[in-house]
Amino acid sequence: MESGAYYMRIKAKFDHFNINVSDLSRSIAFYEKALGLKEESRKIAGDDSFILVYMADSTAAFRLELTWLRDRKTPYELGDNESHLCLRLSGDYDAARHFHKDMGCVCYENKEMGLYFIEDPDGYWIEVLPEK
C-alpha cells in the first residue's frame, strides 16, 4: 500500500454477471432450456437502443444479465473464452449431460475431472458441475 493509505474492509456479495447477446429471444430460450434459468426482470432503454434481461435460478440471488444492443451488427469477439460462468446442477448429472449433448451444446468434456462445458448461441462457455 502507498504511504499514508488506510485499510478499509469491504463486504460485498455477487449480484450479477453480464454477457452481450446478438439474439435476445434465442439466448433466453437457450438459458431456459439448457439450465432452467427464468427471466426475472427486464429493462428497455427509452430509445430502444438496448434491452437488459436478468435470468435467475430459483435459489440464488445471483443473476445472469443478457444485454442486447440494437446497433450491434457483428458477432462478439470472445478471445480465448477463458472467463466463463459455472453452474452446479442438482439431480441426475449424467442425464443432464446427455440432454445437453442432445441439444448439441456440449463443447468440451473432461471426464477425469467430472465436468463439461456447454456453449450458448453467442459462443460463451458455461461450465457444468454436479451439485456435490
Descriptive notes:
Helices cover 17% and strands 36% of the residues. With 132 residues, it is α/β, with parallel strands linked by helices. It has one domain: 2,3-Dihydroxybiphenyl 1,2-Dioxygenase, domain 1, CATH 3.10.180.10. The strands form two sheets. A four-stranded mixed beta sheet has the order 1-4-3-2, covered by helices on one side. Strands 5-8-7-6 form a four-stranded mixed beta sheet, covered by helices on one side. The longest helix has 12 residues, at 24-35. It is globular, with a radius of gyration of 17 Å.
Offer a quick outline of the entry.
The protein has 132 residues and is of the alpha/beta class.
Descriptive tags:
single chain, alpha/beta, 2,3-Dihydroxybiphenyl 1,2-Dioxygenase, domain 1, four-stranded mixed sheet, 36% strand, globular
Q: Assign the CATH architecture.
A: Roll
CATH fold descriptor:
2,3-Dihydroxybiphenyl 1,2-Dioxygenase, domain 1
| Number of beta strands | 8
Task: Report how far apart the termini are.
Answer: 39 Å
Name given to the CATH homologous superfamily: 2,3-Dihydroxybiphenyl 1,2-Dioxygenase, domain 1
Question: What is the residue-mean pLDDT, rounded to a whole number?
Answer: 91
Percentage of residues in DSSP E strands: 35-45%
Biggest sheet: strands, sense, closure? 4 strands, mixed
Helix content: 10-25%
Strand order of the largest sheet: 1-4-3-2
SS content category: alpha/beta
Rg result:
17 Å
Order of helices and strands: EHEEEEHEEE
Count structural domains. Answer: 1
Number of helices: 2
CATH hierarchy class name: Alpha Beta
Global geometry: globular
